[in-house]
Amino acid sequence: MNVAGQSAIVTGGASGMGAETARALAAAGARVTVMDVNKEALDGVAKDIGGLAVECDVSSSDSAQAAVAAAKNAHGAARILVNCAGIAPAKRIVGRDGPMPLEDFKKVIDVNLIGSFNVLRLVAADLYAEEPLDDVGERGVIVNTASVAAYEGQVGQAAYTASKGGLVALTIQAARDLSGKGIRVVTIAPGFIATPMLLGMPEDVQESLAQQAPFPKRFGRPDEYAKLVLHIIDNQMINGEVIRLDGGARMQPR
Ligand SMILES: NC(=O)c1ccc[n+]([C@@H]2O[C@H](COP(=O)([O-])OP(=O)(O)OC[C@H]3O[C@@H](n4cnc5c(N)ncnc54)[C@H](O)[C@@H]3O)[C@@H](O)[C@H]2O)c1
Description:
Layout: E1 7-11, H1 16-27, E2 31-36, H2 39-49, E3 52-55, H3 61-75, E4 80-83, E5 94-95, E6 98-99, H4 102-128, E7 140-145, H5 158-177, E8 183-190, H6 196-199, H7 203-210, H8 222-234, E9 242-245
Parallel strand pairs: 1-2, 1-4, 2-3, 4-7, 7-8, 8-9
Antiparallel strand pairs: 5-6
Bound molecules: nicotinamide-adenine-dinucleotide.
């Protein structure tokens, strides 16, 4: 799909990979709506790129419905959705205070897995009513963001790993489910990417994480994620697949 002129939604667009992807999409000529719970940072990104900022909690049906409708009003039905909103609190299954509170587990599943599905279903439903963009019948592209933790979750990542594993499993299923309307679904599984989510960790932890990749021995950059998103949108043969973006890193248990 040619990005220029298309309506695009990026969730988690206030920070990190989402913000960088919103910038890249806007630079390529898309009309971008960024959605996030962090309204202040969101407004800054939207202003920078001449896009629309819509405050949205992706885990809420009402909030996402209103946000997707606002994006559609401003830019037309989104042909591109990039789901970047996510949280990564660490907690062991059994900690010093006993079993992990079930609410803590549910919260991560709610934002990362259900939140991504929530926006995906709404954008896909709008696309069903749109005309295809080409004679092959392509109507849209949806990119989700899992994590290499979906495959090798570290100690303390039970909820995060389960949420991202759900997105990995959903990828081929959703691609099949939406294929009749020419909507592709692709997931990126990043390794360690230098964003506020990772840069909040102690420096020695960061250093040891960066050394886990065979090559290059550094964190990935948000622009490397954004570049992959643009390629996925452009390359129609990529569908129903999860692509690791990790410099060959395989996460260690801790
Ligand atoms: N940084 C990494 O190393 C890394 C690795 C693998 C996967 N990921 C995943 O990539 C995605 C982007 O992460 P990032 O590193 O850019 O993190 P980030 O913290 O910079 O950005 C995440 C954004 O999501 C927003 N958000 C959180 N809960 C939300 C909700 N309920 N509704 C809407 N927005 C919400 C946050 O406000 C934030 O702006 C996440 O899904 C994360 O799990 C990150």
